[in-house]
Amino acid sequence: MSRIFGKTVRQLLVLAAALTLGTLALTLGYLTYFDRAVLLEQGRKTDGTVVGIDVGVKGLKRVMAQYTTLDGRRLVGRDVHSTQWFAANEVGDEVELFYDPFFEGSEPPDILIERGPWIWFNPVFLLLGGILLVWLGFVLARHERRKGGT
């Protein structure tokens, strides 16, 4: 089997695939974590009413809620948390949410509906999955090296 930098092509492919997927999962995990952290830290907490469920790609559901800002504007925002496992809220439910007080766009603003520790599930899942994939890539590449790359 041909070798590149002292490693077999198979070892390099396994390592590259695991590192690529792991890095992608780590990046998405960090970005989703950062979105939530910014809304919690800089956002304002208010009450709102669920006005719809936005079903996106592959059946991912995002709650749409109407709320009133501190300056009196009534907006409809889209929850940053999406899921296909369960419908957390129904239309008409009263919810507590965090919103960006500096939002000035035409698209529905991002909001974060208060769900206790569950708001961290997606980012933590992605971060842990990314760490696992990177670790697994190195373990499999090492295993290939030990058995001689056959």
Radius of gyration: 21 Å
* Helical stretch tally: 2
Q: Proportion of β residues?
A: 25-35%
Q: Termini, distance in Å?
A: 7 Å
Shape: elongated
Helix content: 40-55%
Low-confidence stretches: none
Strand order of the largest sheet: 3-4-5-7-6
Care to describe what's here?
The chain is α+β, with helices and mostly antiparallel strands and 150 residues long. It has one domain. It has 2 helices and 7 strands. The strands form 2 sheets. It has a 5-stranded mixed beta barrel with strand order 3-4-5-7-6. Strands 1-2 form a two-stranded antiparallel ribbon. Helix 1 runs antiparallel to helix 2. The longest helix has 34 residues. It is elongated and about 70 Å long. The mean pLDDT is 82.
In terms of topology, how is this protein built?
Layout: E1 3-4, E2 7-8, H1 9-42, E3 44-55, E4 61-68, E5 74-79, E6 94-99, E7 110-113, H2 121-146
Parallel strand pairs: 5-7
Antiparallel strand pairs: 1-2, 3-4, 3-6, 4-5, 6-7
Helix pairs in contact: 1-2
List keywords for this structure.
150 residues, five-stranded mixed barrel, alpha+beta, 2 helices, two-stranded antiparallel sheet
